[in-house]
Specification:
- A three-stranded parallel beta sheet has the order 3-5-4. A two-stranded antiparallel sheet has the order 1-2.
- It has a single domain, classed as Rossmann fold (3-Layer(aba) Sandwich), CATH 3.40.50.11180.
- The protein is α/β, with parallel strands linked by helices.
- The protein contains six helices and five strands.
- A hairpin with a 4-residue loop joins strand 1 and strand 2.
- The protein starts with a strand and ends with a helix.
- The protein is 46% helix and 16% strand.
Length: 147
């Protein structure tokens, strides 16, 4: 069953297999001029949904925001791959918003509850290929932030 709540712009897809949900989501996205936020249950579902969308239509812009792969307030932080994925997708999201691109954001409820860094912080900490870096300043900065 597929229904769209016109007042709040909520879309509810229920009682269908995940592949059909992705197809319905993609069809709605292509037929309407608006961005979508699709909330799933796990990072695995994010990856499955992303793969399905890209298999059907490679031109659709999709942002994957994964949740941390560790409990809140744990002694260990999230894995490097999750951190890198979140940073890359936050940058991608900012670019899509800035350029008014239509996109689908796939995430989990846990991810929406987790803290996000300010988008502009990545611009300040970006290193370009061929850029000269003072090694001692880099080491001082890395030590200062806890590495």
């Amino acid at each position: 069953m597929f229904s769209a709540d016109e007042l709040y712009k909520n879309i509810c897809i229920k009682g269908t297999p995940p592949s059909s949900q992705t197809l319905a989501l993609l069809q709605y996205h292509l037929n309407n001029d608006e961005n979508l936020i699709y909330v799933v249950n796990s990072n695995d579902e994010i990856n499955r949904c992303y793969s399905s969308i890209k298999f059907i239509n490679k031109t659709v812009k999709v942002v994957k925001l994964s949740e941390w792969d560790c409990p809140f307030y744990d002694n260990f932080g999230p894995s490097r791959s999750i951190k890198a994925s979140r940073i890359n997708n936050i940058i991608k999201l900012k670019k899509y918003i800035k350029n008014n691109y239509k996109f689908i954001l796939i995430t989990t409820i846990n991810c929406l509850l987790q803290r996000f860094q300010d988008f502009d912080i990545y611009k300040e900490r970006k290193v370009e290929i061929g850029e000269n870096i003072i090694y001692s300043d880099l080491i001082d900065y890395i030590e200062k932030i806890g590495y």
